[in-house]
Amino acid sequence: MSELTGKTALITGSTTGIGRATAYALAARGASVVVTGRDTQRGAEVVKRIQNDGGTARFIAADLTNQEDVTRLAREAGQVDVLVNNAGAASFGPSASITTEQYDSMLDGNLRAVYMLTAALAPKMAERGSGSVINVSSGSATLGDFNNAVYAATKGAVNSLTRAWAAEYGPAGVRVNTVAPGPVYTSAPVEYLDKYIPLIPLRRVAQPEDVSEVIAFLASAGGSYVNGAVIPVDGGLTVVEPPKPSLSID
Prior knowledge:
single chain; alpha/beta; 7 helices
């Protein structure tokens, strides 16, 4: 496939999980991929695999909770045609237990970095008359989620930014969309994720590729008329009422 030949794609958090799968998917479609994250070794491994498969990639180390790193990343990435704001972190627990440091880290990495990168790169896409920004949100932004207030709030804000940016940049040919995954086999313990299976209509937890293929669709010509959408990629978890316990009446 060569749908994205001649395009450069910057994918944050692309040394593991959904971001890594997205890097492979976009490279397979011809994009020149900018891999970024904090782990240089894992970044080099992603770049090497893409190159071994005949693709083009390079790595830029960056900590997205650091404003200077975000600014540098936008500068060093150069011309970007596809921006995937994937990186994110979560600290779980009762709201009263979340420290100021944890709060700041989630707001900085999950929200401020998304805002800064898009504000830096989307206007340049608009000048060229085309581009695609794809944010990675979460089903937690839609459902009330136990012990997850701050993370869910950052993802809800990303959904709102998506709609605002679709209106702002759409007239110049830049599409802004969001994918909202449910449980995905990434860094969370398998035993924890598997507890969701009875609640998911498709009765399985997603693989990273289930999400990356939707991102690739939004980045390519097939998604050319999709703008401002928040697309659940969760097997139906957030749109179907969960099963109710059976009641026996004597």
